[in-house]
Amino acid sequence: MAFSYKKGIKKVLEHLGGDSNPAYVVVAIATAKGIFRPLFTMMDRTESPETKKYTALREGLTEVIAIPTYLLCGTLAGKGAALVKDAEKAKIAKHNLRFVGVCTAALVVIPGLCSLVIKPFTDRIFHKNDKKNEQENPKLDITSKSNSPIFKQYRENQPAHFYRQKINLANFTNTGMRVG
């Protein structure tokens, strides 16, 4: 009996597309991301070592949180199919509910868990809450007059009450502030 590659591939694809859990695909992707994103981050030669360590840890922790969350949310959502009486419709409902559970995990649950867990965890590892950091980073004084050239222009060319009331926001585009 000869083995046909076309029949073998067809059989594997039918099995994978049949009654598979959508969480398995997402878990496979999350596992690859959990391995390769921190790896590529650590290989970046343009960033400082401290930034690379923090970013790689954050990316790895995100995927460590994501993998069980995908599985749990998909499984829990699939339990709702038990309410459907017809067996064929219950099978379809279970598959669709699993997909909705995985999507909900990706859009809501995982970002929420990461917000709760990752920042305190990385702060503890990198000692961000030390008294030393508070002394090195004094609080910003926003009540004193600015010596910025943008504000000097208004003080020199306009009466005092004018620049307090109307400031052209177009002049603030090149102030040197960075986001991110």
Order of helices and strands: HHHHHHH
What is the radius of gyration? 27 Å
Q: Work out the strand percent.
A: under 5%
Largest sheet: none
> Overall 3D geometry?
elongated
Number of strands: 0
Which class best fits the helix and strand makeup?
mainly alpha
Number of helices: 7
Low-confidence stretches: none
Helix fraction bin: 55-70%
Distance between the termini: 62 Å
Mean pLDDT: 80
* Total separate domains: 2
Topology (elements, then pairings):
Layout: H1 5-17, H2 22-42, H3 49-78, H4 87-126, H5 131-136, H6 149-157, H7 160-165
Describe the structure.
The chain is mainly α. The chain has helices at 5-17, 22-42, 49-78, 87-126, 131-136, 149-157, 160-165. It has 2 domains: 15-136, no CATH class; 139-175, no CATH class. The protein has 7 helices and no strands. Helix 3 packs antiparallel against helix 4 (87-126). The protein is elongated and about 80 Å long. The model has no long low-confidence stretch (mean pLDDT 80).
